[in-house]
Fold each of these.
Amino acid sequence: MNIWIIAENWPPRVGGIERYITGIAESLAKHEHDITVFAPPGSAKMSGVSVIASRIFWPIIKPSWMPFALYLLVRAMMQKPDAIICGKTLFEGRVARIVKKILGAPYIVCTYGMEIATWKSNIKTSTQASHVLHDAAFVLVMNKQTKESVITLGAHEERVMFMYPGIDTDKLDQKNNPDDVLKKYDITAPYILTVSRLVKRKGIDDLLRAMAIIKKSIVVVGDGPERSNLEQLAQKLDIDAKFLGAISDEDVHALYSRAQLFALTPKELPGDYEGFGIVYNEAAYFGLPVIGTNTGGVPEAVQDGVTGILAQPGDTTSISQAITTLLENPDKAKHYGEMGKQRVTAEFTWNSIIGSLEDILTSL
């Protein structure tokens, strides 16, 4: 099939949306579909995928994306895509909706959680999102909370499909020598690992306060606007916390392989909640038991009492108790890790997930 993907979020930008969209593009290409991605200037290339970097927004024109929409419409008249996948509901969905209305090309919308909650809070964007979701051939969601939201906004319930983010086991198997990596960053095992963008919603502050209670070492991988605040908090709490910033995937995988357990404790903020949490499944692939929180799509990624423990979001005591439970019960921790690895290799690899999207595409 000739499939187009419109993606404002594309590498070198880093985040869960980028990983989701690139996973879709790469997996569909491997299954011999003709994939063309329209992304912002400076976007990274991808093997097997045609990435067309185009200017998307023109500030002096209202709406600022309309020139891009006209450009895409002209290309669609000539190249006739079989389907368009929208990286988000807005703005990508509005562009695809124009193409559908004029040329009939069906479109699929990817949703995550926080963006839907944000758009619902504004009458203008709520109306725009409602039109896009109503006219979509399918809407992809990754948690129950988002499914309810998109249906409320106008999506047809029978067209709302679950499609979780996958992991690429071939890439995860690529790791640097763990001993060298620990030496490189001056890390002494045992340690608890977290991997995250450092933003308030991720709840790293709550995790650090829990570490102050249990007096254990933590390694924090990732960067973001909260890094300085979190480093100051760790110093104030007098805990053994190493902030590594953004490091290579091969180093991250080595750190997974030597960690005691993985913890990420998101919390819900107004209009912003965790959509899923790919890193939970990455950690599970390495056999780690995981600590999450009962918010957003985290329960979809972490099976409480099966692959890990779900603490209460924003509750430092609940988080510290969950971590202590696993540290003091190594057999239980090992069992959770084994169950997590079995689950992700059976259900959450891109090879297994992409088949459901192909079924959707061939039904259009």
Amino acid sequence: MTEEDRRERQNREVERNFEAFQKLLPGLLDEHFGEIAVMRDGKLFALYPTMEEAGPAARKEFPDGFFSYQEVDDEPADFGGMSYAFMRD
């Protein structure tokens, strides 16, 4: 896979995950506000209290790097890389 192919796949993954996250968000806000959602293949993988916990867990589970993070908040998170989601650090 070329670097360009990889970036394109990452962008598709982030978009798919963000759309799925937006649908899940209303049900997550009350109990998980401020937590970090790890998304993969348009599905919620897990929720973590902090980015410091979410990052290593996601990288261990998905070493290929095709996942994204999103903060459970009523506004899109900016973790860098993307304006509303972050693929990997």
Amino acid sequence: MQDALVPIFVVGILFLGLPWLIFHYVTQWKKNGGLTAEDEKLLDDMHVLARRLDERIATLERILDNQEPGWRPRQAAERSTEEDWRREN
């Protein structure tokens, strides 16, 4: 009797239990997959802040380039090499 119940139980789990569990979580992921309005607003605010910070950094770099041209040694060396190449050609 017990030998017959184990295969029935295993088959029931494999063909009923696991598909139900998988479909249950798939529907949950689909239902909760999108962004909420609050998340979208927060994302937009962060995007605006990132653009403002990028503009500030660009402004500071322009100011430093005008006041102290050698503050970026690697880029200054690249510029001088490029200027030398232009003079030769």
